[in-house]
Amino acid sequence: MSLIKFISSKVFLKQLGLAVIAVVVICFLMLKWLKFSTNHGQFVEVPQLQGKTLDVVQIELEDNDLQMVVQDSANYNPNYPKYSVIEQQPEAGSQVKEDRKIYLTLNPSGYRKIAIPNIIRRTIRQARPTLEALEFKIGKITYIDDIGKNEVLAIKHKGETITPGTLLPKTSTIDLILGNGKRASN
Fold this sequence. Notes:
Elements: H1 3-7, H2 10-37, E1 44-45, H3 54-63, E2 67-71, E3 85-89, E4 95-96, E5 101-106, E6 113-115, H4 124-133, E7 137-144, E8 152-157, E9 160-162, E10 167-169, E11 173-179
Parallel strand pairs: 2-5, 7-11
Antiparallel strand pairs: 1-4, 3-5, 6-10, 8-9, 8-11
């Protein structure tokens, strides 16, 4: 039998028709199943979570059938309480499917600690930008008799003398003791 006669035969056309009907039925059933299994058209609104503690956030997300994923945060924000949410993704008010993961960034307990640089015997002109670049604040400046005028002789924090390399929280206030350019009297 030639190919043209086989393609035009009743048996082939009957089988082709059944195959097309089967594909249409399978596609129809698959679309109905997908619509049902993915809750097509059903959304949950993401609640406002910023500023709330982790316990409150967990309750709110469970009530809305959402999942929580906590991400690390290295940036302390003094405008929010410790260990509260400072950022969320997706944003509050977004429409999402239930069981969606909500990514949260938490506020750490405080500023991270930074080592004090070695500014001993450096002038105040050199020391100030170095400390300010690390986000330390310069507090009280005291002068004592020393030949090195405006040279840093000692570093203090909360009244205690500290050494270079000491770890202090970012934005800490550092007091400096400088030389006044006069010889120390014996």
